[in-house]
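**Folding the chain**
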Amino acid sequence: MLLLLSMSPFRMYTRKTAAFQKKPEDKSSEKCIVDVNLINKGVTGKQAEKMLDAANITCNKNTVPNDPQSAFTTSGIRLGTAAVTTRGFNTADMDVVAQAISLVIDDMEKNKEEAMALVKSLTDKYPLYE
């Protein structure tokens, strides 16, 4: 699945992936990965990976179809939902994740603290160990 990082399609993605919560019958979670094309944002995948990591959001740089960048730099990122669904994130939480990613990609310097606060609110809400 390839999406442009604009709030409408990106939020649609987060809503859909939040539906892949744990199955009661086998307690496993579905695996869902999405590739995000950043060409229209003027940010490379390598830059986005570092920026998001600085805001405590994990992703991987990833090539996109007809990528003008090298495989080392890339024009996209890959996001997975396994960690957040395992922690119990719901649809509203996925909207917060999308908002945090968008804030960082749009203007890291201006929005880093706000994005980090959003991430912290979610990690506090869903601790790794109880």
The first strand starts at residue 2 and ends at 4. The CA atoms of residues 14 and 85 lie 11 Å apart. Strands lie at 2-4, 33-37, 60-62, 76-80. The chain has five helices and four strands.
